[in-house]
Write a structure and sequence with these properties.
Rossmann fold, 13% strand, alpha/beta, two-stranded antiparallel sheet, 9 helices
Length: 252
Amino acid sequence: MDAFEEAFADASIAGRLGHFLVVVGVEYPHTRRFAERLARIALCQGKERRPCDTCVSCSVSLTLNPDYFFRSGIEADGLGIDDAKEFTRFGSMHSMLGGWRVVLIEGADHLNSSAANALLKTLEEPAPQTMFLFSAHTRSRLPETIRSRAMFFRLPLVARDSGEQASPDTTEDIVEKLNAYPSGQALDTVLSDWQRALQVRLRATLDGAASTPRVLGDIASLWKHIAEARKRVHANVNPRLIVESLLARSYA
């Protein structure tokens, strides 16, 4: 259990859990597994440590827990207003096991605008002991109305078959660096780091259950845009034009 999970568990035991947390990470399977660990902590009813592995909530698998709801915007290739209504309906019910209820949405950056708007009231006025856990590839793709209501936790990149960090930068960090308009070799280095992050994401996607045509297409398209931008850097094109064009095409 890492430091954030320990702090989350302490808050859970003390009754100080928030109602809305977004976990941001490049690798979808890794981000989902981390969010699932948080869900187990929130659902646990142990008095001294969580997860305790002995309470009624811990005695059943996460997928069979009646107080847990999961939906993937990646596997479903998007989340619409009907999904949002289902999240809200589940979150408004009473706990079956007497503890918290958790709604985990993987790939929340695949929420369309209608679904996001339909969730606003629920996120502003959640039912007691109900937590919404979202996972997302990047914070910037979430609607501002969602971002303004959430607490965020950003995961570092993780190397394949290793517990070591592959890079201190997530996609969000890279975008922030681009917004500072670096030039020359500095800009090329940032773009190279972004391609390296995409390689990690691609490997994780192919290894996991998130390799839908849409996700793979997004990765391929972004890689192409970055490669074109690096060519323009080497051709001494105005760096501000390169950055603005890349961000506009990548996040249109």
